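User: I'm curious whether this sequence folds into something compact or stays loose and floppy. Could you predict its structure so I can see for myself?
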Amino acid sequence: RRVHGEKIVVGVTDDGYVLKKKQLPELIEPVDQRVKTVQEFIAASKPGLEVVVEAMPDGFGPSIREPDLNCIVVSKETLPGGHAVSAKRLELGLCGLDIEVIDFVQDNNGDAMETTLDNVMEMKVSSSNMRKQLLGGRLRPPRVPELSHEFDGMTIIGLTGGMASGKTQLSRKIQTLATKLDKNRVEIIDCDALGHLAYEPGTQCFQKIVNVFGDKVLVKPKNGQKDLIDRKLLGELVFQNSEKLNNLTSIVWPEIERLFKDRILEAKKRDVKIVVLDAAILLEANWDRCCNEVWVCVISEKEAIERVKERNPNLSEDHVRQRLANQMSNSQRVAMASVVFCTQWSHDFTNMQVAK
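Assistant: Here's the prediction. I'll summarize afterward.
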């Protein structure tokens, strides 16, 4: 924030590279909304003050264009940036700036959590803390799903996330908590496991895959039983081939949907009230149309790469990045989420999100 007399100039970080380095960037509002919020806040705080607020795609923004500025307000963290702005202005023939350093405002909420959550929360009031406090809370209201008459009286929650996002870990935590509360009211359906059933010999799905991709995708078990589909080989065939991938998903996804709908109806007969569909491809397969809520698990790309390489040391970082790039992005998932979780920090912090 740059202040001069009765004028304040504010640069708001643009939706670009700088934000990608922030924690939980998927929960950051679009820059237009943030600019509007700043304008409204200043107008309410001091009516009549001349205000200039604009998106800032770099580290300087309007501070090196406004000729009548003489002061810049910084924190201890951003003091080097203040010196850089003043030097850049001198370089451009403008006046240098007085630098006003202000202290952080203590975040009492973060202070309380600091002792129990392994430094997950910062001690200062910050946008990172605000985003972390959104985790596990409802961002959007429940909706009426398709076939709501068949699932009347039930709540269907779709749980999804990208590769190595901790979705499975989160599912276990939900199951543990649900068991403590009322084990008969909540059921988790593992759609990935249903996917394995869809590939089993003798099913229509199995035969359709063989018809489309040929006998080359089959492997003979050592125990002499019926041929099985080699899912690893099949995955290699469709990897980076959108036509073949679409052929496969058009066969498998409808079968998985049929299976999980059968499971939901079976659960309804047992008076189960809440069903969690644990599905990595929930949104890609458009299964969210069957859900009252969508719960999304996210982690940073850096964390995802580290987790995948820890499990599969032979995979190169470039290969992992490519696989992540081929998935729906975290931002796309969060845009459709009712609730967002992040397993990037301690188990205690994840547990707190689930308990919400």
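Summary: The CA atoms of residues 201 and 223 lie 15 Å apart. The two ends are 35 Å apart (CA to CA).
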